[in-house]
Hints:
The protein is mostly beta strands. It is 5% helix and 41% strand. The protein has one helix at 2-24, and strands at residues 84-85, 88-96, 106-109, 120-128, 133-135, 141-145, 152-161, 164-171, 181-187, 190-192, 204-207, 217-223, 228-230, 234-235, 240-247, 282-290, 301-304, 307-310, 316-323, 325-333, 336-345, 350-356, 361-368, 379-384, 387-388, 391-393, 396-399, 408-414, 419-425, 428-434, 439-443. Strands 1, 2, 5, 7, 26 and 27 form a six-stranded mixed beta sheet that branches. Strands 9, 10, 12, 13 and 14 form a five-stranded antiparallel beta sheet that branches. Strands 18-17-20-21 form a four-stranded antiparallel beta sheet, with no helix packed on it. A hairpin with a 4-residue loop joins strand 12 and strand 13. Mean pLDDT is 75; it is low at 1-29, 31-81 and 252-280.
Amino acid sequence: MRASRATVSALLVLLAAGGAFLLLRGEHPPPPRVEAPPAVPAAPPGESPPPPDLPGPASPGPSTPAPAPVEEAPPEEAPEAGIHLGGLPLRFRIREGPSGRILRGSASILEDDDPFPGEALSVPLALSLPPGYVPESPEPRLSGTLSPFAEALEAELLAWPEAAIRLRVEEEDGTPVPGCRCRLADFAGERRQVSTTPTETAGEILLRGIPLLRGEKVRALATDGERLVLSSEARLAEGEVLLRALFPVEGPRIDPALLRVGAGGMFGGRRGGGRNLVLGETGALVVTVLRADGRPAPRVTVRAGGSRAEADAGGVARFAALPAGERAVSVLEPGFHAGPVTVRVGPGAAASLELRQAAGGTGRVVVLDPGGLPVPGAALEASTDGVPYCIMNGYTQTLGLHSGPDGSALLPGLPPGETVVRVRLGSRSASGAVAPGGMLEVRLPEPE
Length: 448
């Protein structure tokens, strides 16, 4: 037994020495053939047994990356999914009228009549606004003119803090009249049905849904079913505005002032045109119209003196018989202008010309009140030579232009010449003209 143990020990020593020799030579002994997993060795005294061997991780390879944290997009960059107007994707941006800051809200189109480019549009909207905010109009609409070169649309809408208007209905002797139906009689030149809730026991009611357009006059109507009375007049301001409606003692009557409730309208139309009678020697002119990136500009109207021609799908307009001499050639479309460029048309000859979309200049409009203070949130509409002005950012058109918190607004891409600008806020409006690189100061009158 002792000899066997000595023999085994000697063999172990020889094996260890051989392994060390191979390691010193940089060689490794061949791995042993394993038929079964080795037994877990016993733990030394006082130590916990080691954990059993577990399958390791899979070898590195292509795998699905962990999703990045999603940051909420700011409201001005968040598109309204699935909304289109005239076949173009539309994104809304809602701002607070007084400050210009972005509000979290949404808008949707109630009716899409598929407007054609160049046509004036008036699309009814449904707005979802934060509590305490209302649109300027009780029936908000998206207005403007679609540019024939727009490939996407964005619309800027304004919301206003809701005014606090308290109506108190009393008999002429000061006794409260509960149960009266009330509504706004006159606000910003229009009638508004803002409340039909009966007055409370104290004869008072809060009129809701009125935007806080400072300085605008407001009046209300009240009826108890037999009598109708017009309230006192007040101007909107910060804090609560109180209106009083007094029923006369002598009996039912209708105040003649009710007949003065304003209503306004604006009518416009396109100027008519006629066929030019060309006499004397004539020549031909071919005009190729290109966009700023070099693509053809199809279906635009090219002007050559007093004549006009429409470009085809390749952006080429042809004049077969122009009076000989020099002609100013230009293109003026909503959101697109090129020229004017002077070309000489020879008798019996054909001239050619290439017009490329111009970047245009930027004008600045400043809206002020009668005292010279800035007026934020005023709506601006502009046109040049009867063609509506459009704001284009590449091929994205912006619908809706308003003065900012400092009362100013920039009009980029103005064509040469004067652009007529009309400014409106509530019942007040004013107009003027601005040229590229110039500034227009518009003073709104006091509310009537």
